[in-house]
Amino acid sequence: MNDIKNSIISGKTTLGIELGSTRIKAVLIGEDNTPIASGSHDWENGYIDNIWTYSLEDVWKGIQDSYSKMANDIKEKYGVTLETIGAIGFSAMMHGYMVFDKNDELLVPFRTWRNTITEKASEELTKLFNYHVPQRWSIAHLYQAILNGEKHVSDISFQTTLAGYVHWKLTDQKVLGIGEASGMFPIDINTKNYNAKMIEQFDELVASKNFSWKLENIMPKVLLAGQNAGVLTEKGAKLLDVTGNLKPGIPFCPPEGDAGTGMVATNSVAKRTGNVSAGTSVFAMIVLEKELSKVYDAIDLVTTPTGNLVAMVHCNNCTSDLNAWVNIFKEFAEAMGLENVTMDKLFSVLYTKALFGDPDCGGLLAYNYFSGEHITNFEEGRPLFVRKPESNFNLANFIRVNLFTALGALKTGLDILLKDENVKVDEMLGHGGLFKTRGIGQKIMAAAINAPVTVMENAGEGGAWGIALLAAYMINKTENETLDDYLSQKIFAGKVGTKMNPDPTDVKGFDEFMKRYTNGLSIERAAVDNLK
Prior knowledge:
It comes from Clostridium neuense. Among the domains are: 267-315 and 410-503, 2-Layer Sandwich (Nucleotidyltransferase, domain 5), CATH 3.30.420; 320-405 and 505-530, no CATH class. The protein contains 19 helices and 22 strands. It is globular, with a radius of gyration of 23 Å.
């Protein structure tokens, strides 16, 4: 207790704050890199004027609340006031569209990754660059705004991401970590910077518009893991800690996206490793040994925080519909007068029940599309459950099909990598809400990807812990020590995880389900077209 207290007073700690889709979390880690205090704030995006968005007011309210709760946690546990920190890192959901004028004013409301409104821009840029540019990438949003003839575009002075915005306001530095930057614009893995040829192609494409800006001049500078990304300014300190106790001058690591922090938190930044994050959305990433043979619409290419090429399959929908069904069971339990039925208990009971279902879910079919799903070509979604009269409709199969479909779009994309491109992966590390109920989500995931899945005991803090580790790496690394070595030898050495190999029966059952899933997409299309 005294050691931790002294670490806090002397600033031998690091802080990571991540802005996720539904929660902002702050985690302070000690000298041994384990969390010593945390605080979180729940928030939700709004759908305003056909745009998924968060207000800047909500961004700062959430950051300040999570920081305040973490600082109060320290005060309660250790009896000290937090005044300094060894280093700080910020992370957030990637991509989206945040553009500012010369007076640093936001030009249009923040457009998040969740918006599927940039199809034309995505298609045209993919063709121009011969490189897949997903709809949610920042460059796709910018070009779509140009195609739409939106007046604000001519006033752009700076474009960044949510993590980049927060970092800028706290440090005055317009920078991004390379992993986060790779979700704005394609990266050249040789120069570890934006692809110069593609920047030139883009400028030529929009030359007739006579904008006052060139693309390179409005994007943040790219930094690698371990590089210093500025320090907390006096104004930034007051913005982060409304009590005024936190002192300025604290170094910041480069801001990273939730993809990069997920890789760090699961020790999957080395080649032939991968990780899968399954929560509101789901994405899987595999660090490649070589480039893919061709461009795939379903596969995004991003980088690790050190700049290695990563194939990423990202799907907008994962657990939202599953959670909605569990809430129905909670309502039923309460209506029956059953007391002490917690959500944890419900998840545990229902998920475990899924293990007793038929391997292929008994002929049931579900789609978990709360929003659009680009991998299966849906611009909008309608959650859907359907069965034939002779399907084996029971509780086990019902829960099982909703677990399977949470990974249906993901498997569609991963099959391209694992089956078509023959990408090798030794192990996938799982994190996120789907894995919270021990063993169940892990077993289903192993069946979906037909590869071993490991869940680490100490990855529970997720991305906030991951960005705190990147901040720690920046100030604690030895000369020439790579991030791979730092994580393997100093963070994860001797740490145990639960590894689960795929069950051949489950693998076969999942493949059978996927045939039904693919054939039934026309049902989902009819729902989107007819339920307006």
